[in-house]
Amino acid sequence: MRKVLLLIVFFGSIFVKYSQAQSDPHFSLFEYSQNIYNPGAAGSNNAMCVTSLHRQQWVGFKEEGRPVTTLFLFDMPIPSLDMIGVGLNIQQDIIGFQKDLNVSANVAYRLELDFGMLGVGVGAGIINRSINGNWRTWGSLIGQPVYIDPTIPHMESKTAFDLNFGATLVGRKFWVGLSSTHLLNPVIKFDIDNPSYIARHFYLTGGYEYSLPNPSFDLIGTGMVQSDGSGFPEIQINGKILYNKSFWGGLSYRYNDAIVPMIGVHLVNGLSFAYSYDISLIKIGSNMLGSHELMVRYCFNLSMDKTPGRHRGVRRL
What we know:
Layout: H1 2-17, H2 34-37, E1 48-56, E2 68-78, E3 81-95, E4 98-113, E5 116-132, H3 138-141, E6 155-170, E7 174-181, E8 187-188, E9 196-197, E10 201-211, E11 217-227, E12 234-243, E13 247-254, E14 258-266, E15 271-280, E16 283-284, E17 287-288, E18 291-300
Antiparallel strand pairs: 1-2, 1-18, 2-3, 3-4, 4-5, 5-6, 6-7, 7-10, 8-9, 10-11, 11-12, 12-13, 13-14, 14-15, 15-18, 16-17
């Protein structure tokens, strides 16, 4: 185990040395969005799962320009090859004049161990970054010609190859994941002198489910550390109470950023819903920067000898 930890620290230090500015969006309901940043999670629910997640960030500002992120995720184990999991991820992230569209496919090799299922996977795809700047200047307001600054992109769209890697270990009561996105630091070169780099990001995630003395209740704790290697990492800790294996409520704390109440439900037909609201600890002017997040998931059991919709595990709770 000591050798494994030393290898993780060694390679992590190499990755951190060459990382650029942070660009990946974050999610309060990160347990449901793992496939976007950890390909090793593909198929880890032992079910065919379709997940959609939508985040409206900083609703204290006007609608135009504030961050809006939408995810569509699909993953499943291959029925004839239990050791293989596959997935498809589509992510759209809009902030200001910039829109990123990331499409990737995940493949994970799943190895069954005595204490859980280990998935090691790779994700490959494309990331498209477009800028549509409707610039307004004083001259344009009084009828003069608009000055076009050659150092500022106005309407451009560029695409680059993207590569992710990750590993996830899922046990009966716990899960842990280690992953990295944008391994090759994709270059987005607009028609200006200095190209833009998509920063390499690193994720450490985990969770544990504790059964309380009252069998109707379970306590679930999860956490995430997200970093691009520059500055202090983003740290988030979630605590939830699950009632009757179906309804849950909880509270999340994102270090020096937000407190997040959240609720959710898991229905017997495989449907799950969750909602969270970020109560920001940061105030700009008179604006309170709250954020809405909504998740919908449907999981279908691929095994005919099991009850559909009952793929219970801490990753989904």
